[in-house]
Every structure is written in C-alpha cells, then in structure tokens.
Amino acid sequence: MSGAMSTVERAFGIEVSHVFGKERAGDVEVANGFVAKERAGDAAEVAANGFIAKGRACDVEVANGFVVKETAVDVEVTDAFTAEERACDVEVANGIIATERDGDDVVATNGFVTKERRTGDDAEVAHDFSPLLVVYKSGRLERPLILPLVPPGHDDATGVVSKDVPLSASSFARLYLPPEARRRRRREGQAPRARLLPRRRVPATCVYHRFLNDLAAACPAVAVSVDYRLAPEHLLPAAYEDSLAALKWVFSAADPWLAAHGDPGSVFLAGDSAGGNICHHLAMHPDVRAAGLKGIVLIHPWFWGKEPIAGELEHRSPVVGSSRMAKKKSLWEYVCPDAADGVDDPRMNPTAPGLENLACEKVMVCVAEGDHLRWRGKAYAADAAARAKANGSEPSTVEMFESMGVGHVFYLLDPDMDEARELLSRIAGFVNPKLTSERAAAAAASLTIE
C-alpha cells in the first residue's frame, strides 16, 4: 500500500485503486485516506470511498469516513447524519443522508447523491448532461448537483437579514439586507424596516444563500436572488422572462426594503455559470436599456460557440461525441429548442454579434484558470473593453479577473479559501468603488468568522 491519497492493491487477481476508485473482491480488507474497510462474502462492490459507498452483499460490513455500517440480508444502515434502513436486496448510496425502503423497489436519497433502482423507460437514459441534468425516457429528471434549500432569516456571521417575496405564481425572490443599511436608517432617525415576511417558499440553496449573505455584507448592498423557472420543465426563454420580470420589479422599488435602502441608479446584475448568461441577456434587452443599468458582473459565464476560439483548441480537438464539449452543445439545444443557430445563437455566443447594445456602464468578467469556459469569458471581456474604448469610456469600466488554480464556481464549494475571499473582495470593490482595497479585503475575510 502506498500513500493515504492513492493506494493500489491486488486481491484475487483484481486491481483496486482509490480514494476515488472502485473495488471488486472476494475476501479483502481495504483502508484509505477516508477510512474505508470492507470484508466481503459474495458479490460486494464499493465505489468512490469516502463520499459514496455502494454495497451489494450477502454478508458484508462497510465503514467509511462518514460512518456507515451495513450487515445484510436483513439490512440496517446507520451513519453519522442519522440514516436507517431495512431491506432484502438493496443498493446503498450515502454521503450525508441515505434512506431506503421497499425491498425489491429501493430508493436511496441523500444530500448529494440519489441512487434509484428502476426498470424499463424509467431506467433508460435519454439525455445525459451529468452532473447538471439526467433525463430518462419516462420523462423522469435527476439533478445531481441540487443541494439542500435553506430558509431566510438572520445570518449570525454577517448580520445580514433575508426574506422571501413572491413575484408571480412561478417566480420568487430572496432579498438580503446588510446591517449597515439598517444602521444608516437608525442614524437618520427612521425605524428600521428589516421585518421578515411570512415564509411561503425557500428558493435558495445553502451555498448560494451563504454567498449572497457574504456579498451583501461586503459591498454593502441590498441583494436580490431570483428563483426562476428551470428547464426542461420550462424551456427557454422562461428563465429569461422570469429574470426580466424580477429586474423590472427591482427598478420599481415596490418592496419596502428596496424603497428604503435601494438606489435605482446603481443597479448591478451578477450571476455565475448559467446565471452569468442570463445577466448578459438582460443587459442586452431594450427594456433594460430604457431603465438604466449600472453594471454587470459575470462570474464564470456559460457561453459557447460552434468554432473554437484561441485557448479552446487543445480542449476540443482530441474529443468528440460524448465529450463534455458535445454535452455542452446538446444541453443548450435541448433547453433552448428555438435557438437561431444552435450554440451560435446570440444568447449562447454573445461575442459573435458584438456587445454594442449592452445596457450598462460597467462590466466585470470573472474566470477561473481550471474552467474550460474561461476563454469565452476572456473574449467577452475583450469585446466589452473594445466597446468601452469606442464609446470613449474610462478603461476602469471593464475589469477582467482570473482566479488561479481553481475551477468552475469553486467559491461555492469552499467559500473560506483565500481565492474565494479574493474574488468576493474584487466583486465588492467593483460594485462599490468607494471601498478601499484594504476595507474590501477585510470585509471579505471577516465574513468567515463564525
């Protein structure tokens, strides 16, 4: 056995590799950096040790870093986050929380992984856009990356208060009010309006709720997170339409928090991945041009095109067919069937027609060194800079920031890492230039204190 992060061994002629490997064995004990041990009698399989354990067994005990124990045929499973089950012939999936029922028709669910035993069209994949979306022939959908939802309220780490507001029958918004806004209102002798409305829905996942709390406090600014309709249940342009309606609602200052603390002359749009794509689309809309938008912040935006641009060649040329690049093309065409020219539709490839009609003064594009979308982001920033120059704007109106050594939306996975703090600080400084670099950095760093 070699080091804790990568071990390879042979048992009954079978090669086993992990931490994130697979093992098939007759009677073997395995230990790795995430502390997985298995003694198997018949047909045991363990995959992706540490975060996911799968077991098919006659008489098997499995333990890993998340403390899962199983003994078949009458199975009881428990883990550190409290999951219990009893079944006859089961497939077990865990990581955070696992539950299974019904013996022959078993469903296992948890915070990160869903494993289901299905048959027929309910088991046959029609479209595989994993890890974002998997569509089965029956119409059943799986979204592996959907994380637990969290309610609004007071955030102890930042002092930000949030509330949910219904915008329509299909769209909600979560508002975030930083403590500085409430303090300012008190100084002006007005009663604070940070009263929570009755919660009707929870549109925010845990990682975005954390990021919006942090961002609202760092700027400081009133932040609005939009819960728009998702494809394929609601194909594009549904998400664009919901987001446009939400932006118009923000400009109207119909909500008391926006009326008391918002500045309609300093509205910024920010979004990551598909959200970055939506922000660009809104910034090109004629209704938004009429309202007046201050700026946009595109974080790892989801743009693409038929022909590779500089930097993409090495990522595209060796792979065809089922590659992630092909998936990206087919996913867009699946969720936007009316696309004018596939992935060269202006909504997906905005640099093809140009950015002359951007309805904002300032543009910030954030990319990540380990993200294959970064080249499109850089091209967007270059086009925005050329547009600014042609219009006689200051060079500071366009900013391109690259996070080194990290991947797509990395800051959601580890908001306490230095690169995540730096990204937050740069965004806050772009939105609010009055912040000194030292103050912005200190604000971003202080957000991690619990």
TrEMBL record:
GO terms for molecular function: hydrolase activity. Residues 208-411 form the Alpha/beta hydrolase fold-3 domain. It comes from the Eukaryota. Signal peptide: none annotated. The active site is at S273. InterPro entries: AB_hydrolase_3 (IPR013094), AB_hydrolase_fold (IPR029058), Carboxylest/Gibb_receptor (IPR050466), Lipase_GDXG_put_SER_AS (IPR033140). This is Alpha/beta hydrolase fold-3 domain-containing protein.
